[in-house]
Amino acid sequence: MLQGAAIALVCISLFIIPAGWFTQVAKPEWGKLWMIKPFLVVPIAGALGGVFYYFMDHLRYQGGWKKALAYVISLLGYLVVLWLGTVLGLNGTWWD
Questions:
Q1: Shortest CA distance to 80 belongs to which of 52, 60, 61, 59?
Q2: What is the pLDDT of residues 20-76, one digit of tens each?
Q3: Of 20, 31, 53, 76, whose CB has the highest number of CB atoms within 10 Å?
């Protein structure tokens, strides 16, 4: 979970911090602290993606083609959860 959350935090930081300094206010309701929501939601989604990756371990231990399939499914699952977390984190703050 911590690794998934750390990867997500780095990804959203690379996306928000350079662009965020030049954006005065994304939505007036959020004010100057609009970055808080993405910085909370995206790492939580990354942690959930890390849990999904961990739960796929039972397939990795079986070896063979199941191991390769488990890595592919785990990576795709993590990326989908990270993408959904990014959309939820930026919805209403930076994106309309």
A1: 52
A2: 665 655 566 666 777 888 899 999 999 999 999 999 988 888 888 888 999 999 999
A3: 53
Collapse the DSSP code of 95 into the 3-class scheme (helix H, G, I; strand E, B; otherwise coil) and give the result. strand
pTM of the predicted model, to two decimals? 0.83
Q: Using 50, 70 and 90 to split pLDDT, how confident is the model at 8?
A: very high
User: What pLDDT was estimated at residue 76?
Assistant: 95
Question: Treating both helix axes as pointing N-terminal to C-terminal, what angle do 65-90 and 2-20 enclose, rounded to 10 degrees?
Answer: 40
- Sequence length of the chain is 96
Residues 67 and 74: beta-carbon distance below 8 Å: no
Q: Taking a C-beta distance cutoff of 8 angstroms, is the pair 43, 5 a contact?
A: yes
Q: Copy the structure tokens of residue 31.
A: 């004010």
| List of residues 6+ apart from 6 with CB closer than 8 A | 43, 46
Tokens 């039972």 sit on residue:
58
